Amino acid sequence: MKRYRNGEIWDFEHEVAVATNRPVILGLDGGTTSTVCICMPIMPFSDALPDPLPVLARAVAGCSNHNSVGETAARETLEQVMADALSKSGSNRSAVRAVCLAVSGVNHPTDQQRILTWLRDIFPTQVKLYVRNDAVAALASGTMGKLHGCVLIAGTGTIAYGFTEDGREARAAGAGPVLGDWGSGYGIAALALTAVIRAHDGRGPHTMLTSTILQTLGLCSADELIGWTYADPSWARIAALVPVVVSCAEAGDEVANKILKEAVQELALSVKAVVQRLGLCGADRKNSFPLVMVGGVLEANQRWDIGREVMDFISKDYPGAHPIRPKVEPAVGAALLALNEFMKECVQEAYRR
Predict the structure, then answer these.
(1) Same structural domain for residues 170 and 307?
(2) 51: which residues sit within 8 A by CB, 6+ positions away?
């Protein structure tokens, strides 16, 4: 077991009594905005999980998407958040039995292998390691660790990801704003900012978005919006304007309403693409399947309820879609995935003996 190049991160382990360590699992949800690590104990194999789940510790760090911050910074963030969770739980790496890293930016087997190789330098050889896209953890947070159905994430970014019961998988969107993740928080807010500029220079209709966004940002004119945007064009900073767009739509602004309606269609199309490719709906399009809905854009806390509109759009074609709003966060879903995979491998190893 190596200490990687950030060995000081693990200095706390000298103070942890190994003899008292209980077996634990780690689940990580790493996104563009933040990274969360959950430490949970190994639970007895059972069809029913305890309620509430026995979370030993929770740690939070910044962005761990290597496409956004670079590979070195992403690794440092992931290592730090795992160390923090273990430290808070009074555990160390010798107590870990399985780790599931569900990280945005993991889009190809080469991404998985690169992270697995790095993780293997950190943890003992007997630790089971699983690397997934963060959408997989979000799905598991709604299905309590089972990989079946479809998840729609709409926060700063957006992605739809699905699994069949026999393990086939498919995704739609999730390629980032440059490649057209419309329907995401960034996509909605970027269109709103564009609408303000178009209205200002005469290319677009007048919109309430102008005065509301300028007031929100403490700016005096649309010209200042250019400097504000390019001073820090980070995805999360732009996406934070989504509530402003929703409030203008609720007040009757036609431009804001059009932006949200187009976002609904884009999000629904992503789900439909996954459902069709995997055949989750069955030949008659009526089969039941879970549709997990995650992310701030989909939260039902506004009269203009984007999540409800998306579900209404989808249910017209797929009446068997069963919407689920998870009661646990994606990092817990990642931990449950690690637990399920670990238990499966233990059963298989026992059977081989």
Answers:
(1) yes
(2) none
% residues pLDDT > 90 (the chain):
63
Judge whether residue 18 has pLDDT over 60. no
Closest to 160 in 3D by CA, of 148, 146, 174: 174
DSSP notation for 10-44? GGGGGGS-GGGPPPEEEEEEE-SS-EEEEEEE---
Residue pair 296/242 in contact (Cβ under 8 Å)? The answer is: yes
Mean pLDDT of 78-89: 94
pTM of the full structure: 0.85
| 296, 197: one domain | yes
Let me know: does 271 contact 154? Beta carbons within 8 Å.
Answer: no
Residue 30 belongs to a domain with what CATH number?
3.30.420.40
CA triplet 138, 158, 294: central angle to 5 degrees? 35
Per the structure block, which two tokens stand in for 312? 């209404």
User: Is 6 a residue whose pLDDT tops 70?
Assistant: no
Q: What is the pLDDT of residues 146-161, one digit of tens each?
A: 899 999 999 888 999 9
Beta bridge partners of 103: 30
How many Cβ atoms sit within 10 Å of the Cβ of residue 285?
A: 14
